[in-house]
Automatic annotation (TrEMBL):
It catalyses: Random hydrolysis of (1->6)-alpha-D-mannosidic linkages in unbranched (1->6)-mannans. The keyword Membrane applies. This is Mannan endo-1,6-alpha-mannosidase. InterPro entries: 6-hairpin_glycosidase_sf, Glyco_hydro_76, Mannan-1_6-alpha_mannosidase. It comes from Candida maltosa (strain Xu316).
């Protein structure tokens, strides 16, 4: 594994020095950006778009399409906060994010139908919303805001009252396992996008209504609960059989993040204290469950060394959401910031591994690099470091683009669960073959990782 990794790292290397490590002074922007650059360059080492025959906008296996969406949200922030005059970087980001928009500009590229669930589309939607709020140069024909609206509309149209009283299913496509499951992160992405679109566009009608609908349903179905001690919990989800009554009680940082920051946007926009109360409860719950000695961890799996490749990336989105919450609700800043500072310092000191000397680890409590590496380790470290210098999101009112399209995405068949479409025998056979190919790639990828 180390040998193969070395070959790959060397072939992609941007810098050739031997062992370095990432120095970080937590209250100095230049130091934060210098650290972020090293860590971001480490993330680009996994990028496929530079490789001969590689796909623009994708990272090396075992990273799926969604991992790319998650990564680009953080890399857009990096470009905005730290390196806004770097036109090369800007072009990489623009090409990657536009290339993956799909045939209908709604982040459902047809060749991802074997992997894409509602949460995957939602996380890409968050990256595109990040481009919107960072005033990232718009494509001429399809503005970032209109594409985010398309993501929102296609997701919202899949709201399924046929089971469990509502909610989005995990999967979009019937043939993917998990189609019979409803989960909090998919619904959280819809909630989160609704909140940000309300604030950005200043148009509350559909967006606030949707946010309320999702929150209410999460509560009804028991995915969102309150313990006797007042501690909020957000559980993973449930199978639709038995009306979602058997809830899988696992908790993930990014799910807390999307709901918490969604509440913060809603409170900031509406001034309705119900959202303030909800945000504060989730801040409390997040800080108490996903940190040990103020150092961020993916508590459900990390202490047991059981996190899979996806789970090892969740802290990137979680960090981004904590940073946004702190801005939109300044009253939470004193509470959140010490946790982000301690975590950023711990993450930076973990970035001392690999052949490049700046590969980040998973266990930030450990002294130095813990030997784990991957895109998730890089982007989680990157985003927690950058959360210390997070900048205000813009909105139309404060000078953002008003190239909205409230109906974007409503005119395609992508806005229904794919079981409601007429899938012909030929399509099914095609799907089977694709599944086999994808499985082969995934298995090949993981064998390569384990080997
Ligand atoms: C532009 O950004 C990339 C990615 O961070 C970096 O490798 C490169 O050195 C930057 N270019 C300049 C001129 O700073
Ligand atoms: C999927 O489609 C994109 C264009 O949308 C293309 O560039 C890419 O090569 C295709 N294949 C994969 C595996 O992404
Ligand atoms: C507000 O959103 C609705 C769709 O929900 C749209 O029809 C309307 O044009 C929007 N209003 C403005 C002022 O943008
Ligand atoms: C199914 O669950 C939903 C959400 O909890 C609830 O509103 C509905 O009454 C339940 N339906 C049945 C038949 O139990
Ligand atoms: C709303 O968010 C902005 C940051 O984007 C912040 O400056 C402002 O104080 C917030 N408003 C309230 C009422 O908290
Ligand atoms: C992470 O590092 C800390 C400090 O060295 C250690 O106590 C803990 O057991 C480590 N966690 C894992 C899963 O190895
Ligand atoms: C965006 O433009 C529409 C149409 O010109 C206008 O109705 C709306 O008020 C604008 N939105 C904002 C927030 O200024
Ligand atoms: C956003 O970018 C546009 C085009 O470059 C520019 O005109 C506008 O002033 C920018 N808005 C903000 C808030 O920076």
């Amino acid at each position: 594994m180390r040998l193969l990794h070395s070959i790959i790292t060397i072939s992609l290397l941007f810098f050739t020095s031997s062992v370095q490590s990432v120095a970080l002074t937590i209250n100095d922007k230049d130091s934060i950006c210098a650290a972020a650059k090293l860590v971001a360059d480490g993330a680009w080492n996994y990028y496929e778009g530079f490789k001969y025959g590689g796909v623009v906008g994708m990272f090396a296996p075992p990273n799926y399409w969604w991992n790319a969406g998650e990564a680009f949200g953080g890399l857009i922030d990096y470009y905005t906060f730290c390196d806004p005059t770097n036109d090369t970087l800007k072009q990489w980001l623009y090409d990657a994010m536009y290339h993956q928009a799909g045939e209908n500009y709604n982040y459902i590229p047809s060749n991802q139908s074997m992997t894409e669930g509602n949460d995957d589309q939602g996380v890409w939607g968050m990256a595109i919303m990040q481009a919107v709020e960072r005033n990232f140069t718009n494509p001429e024909a399809h503005s970032w805001i209109s594409m985010t609206q398309a993501v929102f509309n296609t997701m919202n149209a899949r709201w399924d009252t046929g089971n469990c009283g509502g909610g989005l299913r995990w999967q979009i496509f019937t043939w993917n396992s998990g189609y019979d499951y409803k989960n909090s992160i998919s619904n959280g992405c819809l909630f989160h996008l609704a909140a940000r679109l309300a604030k950005y566009t200043g148009n509350s009608s559909i967006y606030i209504e949707t946010a309320e609908k999702v929150w209410q349903w999460m509560d009804d179905v028991g995915f969102l609960t309150e313990e006797d001690n007042g501690n909020s919990r957000i559980y993973d989800g449930a199978k639709v059989e038995n009306n979602c009554s058997t809830v899988t009680d696992l908790r993930w940082s990014y799910t807390y993040g999307v709901f918490m920051s969604g509440c913060a946007y809603l409170y900031n926009f509406t001034g309705d204290t119900i959202w303030q109360t909800r945000a504060l409860e989730l801040v409390e719950a997040s800080l108490s469950y996903f940190f040990a000695n103020k150092i961020m961890q993916e508590t459900t799996c990390q202490p047991y060394n059981l996190c899979n490749n996806d789970q090892r990336s969740f802290r990137s989105l979680f960090s981004r959401c904590l940073g946004l919450t702190m801005l939109l609700m300044p009253e939470t800043r004193d509470q959140i910031l010490p946790y982000l500072e301690a975590s950023a310092a711990a993450a930076a000191q973990s970035c001392s591994g690999g052949d490049d000397g700046v590969t980040c680890g998973e266990n930030w409590s450990a002294a130095g690099w813990d030997g784990v590496y991957g895109l998730g380790e890089q982007t989680s470290s990157l985003e927690v470091i950058m959360s210390l210098i997070v900048e205000d999101p813009i909105s139309i009112k404060t000078g953002g683009s008003n190239q909205t399209n409230f109906a974007a995405g409503t005119d395609t068949e992508d806005n229904v669960n794919k079981n409601e479409l007429n899938i012909t025998g030929k399509d099914r056979a095609g799907a089977g073959i694709l599944t086999a190919i994808v499985l082969a790639i995934i298995l090949g990828g993981s064998i390569w990782m384990i080997f």
